[in-house]
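User: Could you check the structure of this?
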Amino acid sequence: MKIALIGTGKMGCMFEKAAGEKGMTVAERFMDVRPLVADENTKSVLKDVSVLVDFSVPDAVMGNIRAACELGKALVEGTTGWNRFLGEAEALVLKSKIGMVYASNFSIGVNLFYRMVEEAARLIGPFPQYDVFIEEAHHKHKKDAPSGTALVLKEIVGRHHPGAQVPVTSLRAGSIPGIHTVGFDSPSDTIRLEHSARNREGLAEGAVLAAEWICNKKGFFNFRDVADQMIQRRK
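Assistant: Sure, the predicted structure tokens are below.
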């Protein structure tokens, strides 16, 4: 399976390493000095490429999605901080009939954490004495705050605590890979659920899994769809 990588930063390099361990080949690389464009030359060099994987920057995402649609190539979108364009992105992908998987976090552990938080929020929902809070911490170079993962957690909690004010606290310091905590606090006790990433390798492994999954599929998917399908297969 041949992949084209958009973005050659830390996550792009980590993805390339993880893909190689799975027997995939990164056949082409696109970056600032060689952006992805849907011209005849690019169509030619991507002839044998199955999936594009984007770990670039938020401002480049919609351009990369449009190019993928015009090129007719499946896309794994690993960049964060562009969620305000989700509706536009979905419309483009569905119209072009390509496949795309996106996520605020491709970590398999985080996606399992989402399900755990959902169940906890459902159980605690009927007890109004509990207030919910979210804390997240990342390295000092992360540009978006709150993190996309924290926003997903807030959305999940909100389904079971409608109308509740759920504060999100963000910390940016040092080299923290990523810590997300969801707390349920009452006058009597506190319940805390936490996911702590040791490194970014889990993100790369999840993106590789997404690339395998989206190959030859059509539609607009969240990585949670991938995780949910794998869980259902085990039942």
